[in-house]
Amino acid sequence: MNNFVFYSPTCFVFGKDTESSAGAYVKKFGGTKVLIHYGGGSVVRSGLLDRVKASLDSEGISYIELGGAKPNPRSGLVYEGIDLCRKEGVDFVLAVGGGSTIDSAKAIAAGTVYDGDFWDFYQGKRIEKALSIGTVLTIAAAGSEGSPDSVITKEEGMFKRGASGDAIRPKFSILNPALTQTLPPYQTAAGITDIMAHLYERYLTNTEEVEVTDRLIEALLLTMVHEGPRVIEDPNNYDARANIMWAGSMAHNNMCGVGRSQDWNSHTIEHELSALYDCAHGAGLAVTMPAVFTYSMSHNVMRFAQVAVRVWGCQMDYAHPEVTAKAGIEAFRNFLISIGMPKNFEELGAKEEDIPKLVEVLCRGDGRDGSISGFVTLNEDDCTKIYKMMV
Amino acid sequence: MNNFVFYSPTCFVFGKDTESSAGAYVKKFGGTKVLIHYGGGSVVRSGLLDRVKASLDSEGISYIELGGAKPNPRSGLVYEGIDLCRKEGVDFVLAVGGGSTIDSAKAIAAGTVYDGDFWDFYQGKRIEKALSIGTVLTIAAAGSEGSPDSVITKEEGMFKRGASGDAIRPKFSILNPALTQTLPPYQTAAGITDIMAHLYERYLTNTEEVEVTDRLIEALLLTMVHEGPRVIEDPNNYDARANIMWAGSMAHNNMCGVGRSQDWNSHTIEHELSALYDCAHGAGLAVTMPAVFTYSMSHNVMRFAQVAVRVWGCQMDYAHPEVTAKAGIEAFRNFLISIGMPKNFEELGAKEEDIPKLVEVLCRGDGRDGSISGFVTLNEDDCTKIYKMMV
Fold this sequence. Notes:
The structure is a homodimer. By secondary structure, chain A is of the alpha/beta class. Chain A folds into 2 domains: about 170 residues, Rossmann fold; about 210 residues, Dehydroquinate synthase-like, alpha domain. Chain A is built from 15 helices and 11 strands. Chain A has a 6-stranded parallel β-sheet, sandwiched between helices. The first copy, chain A, has a two-stranded antiparallel sheet with strand order 7-8. In chain A, a hairpin with a 4-residue loop joins strand 7 and strand 8. In chain A, helix 1 packs across helix 3, helix 4 packs across helix 5 and helix 11 packs across helix 12. The longest helix of chain A is centred in the middle third of the chain and has 23 residues. The two termini of chain A are about 40 Å apart. In chain A, about 60% of the residues are buried. Chains A and B meet through strand 1, strand 2, helix 7 and helix 8 of A and strand 1, strand 2, helix 7 and helix 8 of B. Strand 1 of chain A pairs antiparallel with strand 2 of chain B.
């Protein structure tokens, strides 16, 4: 196991009706002038935005609003948010929505107190300072509610890139599983896929002797295997929603990823898909992961065999571990299809003829040197083959 | 799942040589005048205390010292520490040692800024304010390095009681697994037992639909089952030590205990043993848990069957789940014996003739009404039977 620092100071407020405490938590964490950042329709229509505002009102906390955050959030709205925060003297950004809204809020919070272009952070500069952030989560998926990460798409060039820093970890996150009950099944399934991807990206490691984090990751994967189909079958199953939601936060606050190298090749490869086609990130991952895993399997067959046995209930083939490893990947692929995720480019809305362009941006865009690296290093030829496996 | 708030802001600094950063972390969290609190010989002899002092010196942070913290820490030293902190204007308490030293440091930190008798907190008053606390951990066991809890024994009456409050969560905890390599095997095994107890106390719940926390608890138990024997066989196995140490912190920061009722009957019953006989807490738990579990099994046979199958690898007897449930308890008992833990009163140094006295203090001491309650409620008759099962 490698040395590490684990610091997850986010206060998670979990359960029914917890959004009514938003104002109290903003106050507790020192906010006096709030930007409420949200996406669009559903937050307004469901009355959630009004409930959050009422909660701020009841604590005497003033606020302004910025809606319009989109899936795969864009840089344009971030610049707008930064201007607004500076002009209005905002000291707290409250995101009401899913991972995209939260990531957008994080970019605004970091950019407001930074003299340069906020995009610097998405080109590798560590975020050291930001306005305080809180969240009211409406979908179990991205884990952004408890992470130090943010992903934004730059409109010029459609580069989708990530930034990081403890300063953008939310001070608090309000998680009411009931808020996720109105999500369309496809969004729910995409969220489940994203959570499982966060787990697999940590599972695929080149660090040895990591039993404790292996076991924690497997625990959360097993939870998704159990609860995923239940929530797809009955969207109003509060308990299944609750188990998925807590798994989603624990999957990405890095409690189970510390002390080990991580992969993230699937995320990197998928980001080009959702940037170009604006598909749901989880749906893109559902198509990407089985291909990446199959392509990478020979790098460490026993690791894939382990997850196959421990999570997918495959029988270990001691004479041919690769049979077990492959069976685990197939079981995962079939699980994703069973909850309604796409299985190939066509179902995702991606096009085979775009592959050269996807590989170019993936491996050469934004300063990259012709390859990406995680569990294995993948060059342009590898990435081309992987995209072709998805067709 | 129940509503909950999870707030674990402790910064965990994990790995080899990390104690050299103690001074930097005290500074980061605002300490300017430190009380270094420790136990005795080994921290001094090993040179650890000197390394910690050197680290504070290099940051220009002044400090005073208070040694003498004992296993099952006593109220007398806490009063002494409180006086010392007030007299010297201490603003940060740095515990260097195991759970007992940390618990003692927490009591001192809370008592210093409290006008009344610190024992009030151990009689049910919530701790709202305390000096900042940091730890350099020397044994994987108590989980106090990441918990809001402290247990102290009051010398008049030998009452062993707990207090709690987010204010006594350590700001940072330094976890170097190598520091635990010099522990005697018995202490290592007692630590392993304590960690597993923290997991079982959370596992035994009356809350339904808690798959995610069940799975997380099982993951940490599985880690102990795998790594425990390895570290007993080779005390210098750094990686096994590291996996156990991280499991110990995650077992007790409540990440896997949220949203569910918990048990704690085994701890409550054991506390009277370590208070009276001054045995290692973990050793007392090794004798206590199998008896408590066997006595409580009929309350929820399927819960015990689940852990038997998922953690202990027992075959499910679908026609007779109680057979599986019992096999899981036996497997746990045998595991504890295999790592060198006592199996009965005699090996623990406890005496059958003391049982009436133990039950009296347990069920009537310090304001209790004749019973204790957790997973099941146990009256004096129940507790007498349980202690007799341990003989």
